[in-house]
Amino acid sequence: MNEHYQHRHKAYSRNWGGPWRKTPGRVLGTALVRLYQLTLSGFVGNSCRHMPTCSEYAYEAIARHGLWAGGWMGLFRVARCGPGGTSGIDNVAEVLSPRYRWFTPWRYREIGRRAGGNR
């Protein structure tokens, strides 16, 4: 294929398309999120209160920060999406501060709390 055709007909993906290391944990985590998006997401409906959606957030968080940190970030994001939670634009942090360590997973709940403006 020529370059012009490839540029015009670029595949669309709702998930983050940036570069990320394809480690086994990240591939497994993003595959599970993608499986959810292709199967159960249609039954749950499009009612997420954030942009990007919770599954898109989890995909990007796992791709950027690995299965452990990204998984916790995605879990706490879904928890924030409930009644009384935040809403609005809540992007994944590009770099995590040294405060977030693997042995302190409860700290990941603080990421993105003030992004929605409700808190």
UniProtKB/TrEMBL annotation:
Q: Name one Pfam family in it.
A: YidD
Q: Which topology term describes how it sits in the membrane?
A: Peripheral membrane protein
Give the UniProt subcellular location, in the record's own words: Cell membrane
The family database entries (SMART domains) matched by this protein are listed as: Haemolytic
Swiss-Prot/TrEMBL keywords: Cell membrane, Membrane
Listed InterPro entries: Membr_insert_effic_factor_YidD (IPR002696)
Asked if the Swiss-Prot or TrEMBL record annotates the protein with the keyword Cell membrane, the reply is: yes
- UniProt-listed PANTHER family: MEMBRANE PROTEIN INSERTION EFFICIENCY FACTOR-RELATED
For this chain, the family text in UniProt reads: Belongs to the UPF0161 family.
This one is known as Putative membrane protein insertion efficiency factor
- Gene behind this protein: yidD
